[in-house]
Amino acid sequence: MTTLLVGPFNRVEGDLEIRLDVQDGAVAAAHANSPLFRGFERMMLGKGPLDALTITPRICGICSISQSAAAALALADLAGVQPAPEGAKVAALLHMIENVSDHMTHFNLFFMPDYARAGYTGADWHGTVVNRFTAGQGSALRRAVEARAELMHVVGMLGGKWPHTLAIQPGGVTRTPTARDLIRIGATLQAFRRYLEAETFGGKLEDFAGLETVEQLEGWTGGDVALFLQVAAATGTGAMGRGTGRYLSFGAYPLPDGRVFRGGTWDNGTEAPVDFTAIAEDISHAWMLGSTAHPRVGETIPDEMLREDAYSWCKAPRLGGRTFETGALARQVVVGHPLARALAAEGGVRARVIGRLLEIALTQLEMERLLRDIHPEQRFMDQVTLPANGSGVGVVEAARGALGHWITVQDGAISSYQIIAPTTWNFSPRDGGGTPGPVEAALVGAPVTEGEDTPLSVQHIVRSFDPCMVCTVH
Amino acid sequence: MNILWLQSGGCGGCTMSLLCAEDPNVIDLLDGAGLEFLWHPSISEATGAEVRRILDAVITGAQKLDILCVEGSILRGPNGTGRYHMMAGTGRSMMEWVRELAPLASHVIAVGTCAAYGGVSSAGENLTDAVGLQYDGGHAGGLFPAKWRTKSGLPVINVAGCPTHPDWVTETLLLLKAGELSAADLDGYARPRFYADNLVHHACPKNEFYEYKASAEHLCEMGCMMEHLGCIGTQAVGDCNIRGWNGTGSCTRAGYPCINCTAPEFEEPGHGFTETPKFAGIPVGLPSDMPKAWFMALASLSKAATPKRLAENATADRITIPPTLRKPKP
Q1: Cα(B125)–Cα(A86) distance, rounded to whole angstroms?
Q2: Residue range(s) defining the domain that contains residue B64
Q3: Which of B194, B225, B257 is the last residue in one of the domains?
Q4: What pLDDT, in 10s, does the model give residues A388-407?
Q5: Do residues B299 and B213 make contact, with C-beta atoms less than 8 angstroms apart?
Q6: Do A161 and B249 touch (CB under 8 A)?
Q7: Is residue B233 domain-shared with residue B113, that is, in the same domain?
Q8: B2 to chain A: which residues are within 8 Å by CB?
Q9: Which residue among A10, A54, A152 places its CB closest to the CB of B259?
Q10: B179: exposed, middle or buried (C-beta count within 10 Å: 0-12, 13-18, 19+)?
Q11: Which of B175, B194, B213 delimits the end of a domain?
Q12: What pTM value is reported for the model?
């Protein structure tokens, strides 16, 4: 058996190191290490609760609005209020823009370029992929960063800038849009739709969103989606990296009449609501001191000695003692989209990537619908008075899945702030029972060619999760 | 010129912001200027062992390095080991890597306030002992001492901002490539003066409210946010309201205060970010270069002269009273 240390692992957000035990040409065991600790939960202690709105978005440059939205909801919960309905809609729109933007960044900049590698030279599809997706160069990447930057104008207008807006507040949003602003945003969304339909999907978004079976998916012939399907099948990578079939979503985009994508769990065919009391973070293999705890009472005390029997700064969240995979695929499986459900059992590289593409199409349709339902004559923010003592929780869906903030305030200052981010779930280390985290489990069996020091199969599988490592440990 | 980009103790948001560059897009922009990434964590193909070989080649001198960009602060803890941030796959701390690579680069750019001064990563108790490349908060001397100079003779160039504006980064790179960025083009905190010679206040759409001290009392109201809501755009450097963010945005345009994110120690204002500290009911902190007595005199005068339109609009969430139109000539 040989051991490989894979890192720096790039085209993921943040720092990642994977240790692989390789035997008989395949990964026998994987250990995921999140090697950066900054201590955001500790920074919050003693500060005024509203400071969470400034500090927590800066946990992550790619999920900034997700962090912002979770913090705002946690503060609203602390105050026992709901944001102004129109404010909630604008917050949801801002959040949708970020999530769609993250999905397209992942597909174009992070994930697809691996198929342009020299290792695939000679395959009949390789020339096309090199043209479209060579890292930092391909024609699809150039067009994608342009379309993304233009889409972000919506955040510029409503949120001032991206990342790290302070526009989302517990009572709503800080800027009241005018009818003119909304017309302008509509024009930006239409331009984005044109880009998606011309380049990514090569067809109508409604048609892709309407796919129901794997056979229908495999019959899709348009755009970069079809290119991905062809390549995933030809290389055999689409079937790699199968998960456990357990999916978690906290539910995305809270609006006055409920969440746009409802939350829940899916365990190989069995649906259930999320039991938030059953969440616990295990620290047996994390460089953390303390004990397994629910985030309401959890602590963050880094082990300065980096003890030998631990291997990551990431805690290991478990729901009812078990691992769950979270992300776009999980979200759409939980919602019950027929294509996502059809891919739930497959649960590998192809399923995760298609889950994200499906959600780009679905979310664009939701953004268009939501925009039509924003009423500029209404109030977009209510004044909120926070209690000096109390606690609150805010849960949202970041692009990468379930994100929760748990806050406790004493005498007007934060006494506890705990965060569980999506990749904390997906890239968690082993727990006390020795059960590996989702990516660790998904890597077992990945083929390793003789002489490979950074196995390509491992890269495809890891990137199919779209990890955000800066959120993971925070 | 080539660029090696490392992400240290930060959020990656300055890279994400960089990808928002427009006119032209960031890839065409850098290509067109003759700038290429030797390696970038979010963009390059090379991963794992391939990256380690690139870094080794720089260290042995087989690969020249023109520009080193560091994003994120340097985490020196625990106990000076740097082990709160080991560079994946290398068994060495990012602190050691930057210490070894920076002297080999012609230019070194600290991208963002974390890399420049410590930034948000150093907030609170600064558990990780985070520090900037050449500053520790507002004090000169960080990972590198105050008098240290890169091979080009310049100090670390601090493209501060949280996040940085994409143009601040690309224009700094383009100026370096053109050989048009000298020590005189940097301000007292080593920030490029092309954006740091402006104040966020310049072109702020709330300027008329500021002129009459017509203040917003709550976030989402139209008035000036200096008196009650913590805005320090009159002291913060940056051309945020001149060039616009993500199209035409800026913090104050979106209805929330400037928190001076281009400055050292902005992360610890000593009060809530969205509240203005006051002494005897009067805001502490003056607009840059404004004599206190004059400010007080002008403020009380202008406050007394505030037109009804501004007084009412200041505490409304939209314009309720439009400007009075001039009557046509008889």
Answers
A1: 38
A2: 2-194
A3: B194
A4: 999 999 999 999 999 999 99
A5: yes
A6: yes
A7: no
A8: none
A9: A54
A10: exposed
A11: B194
A12: 0.98
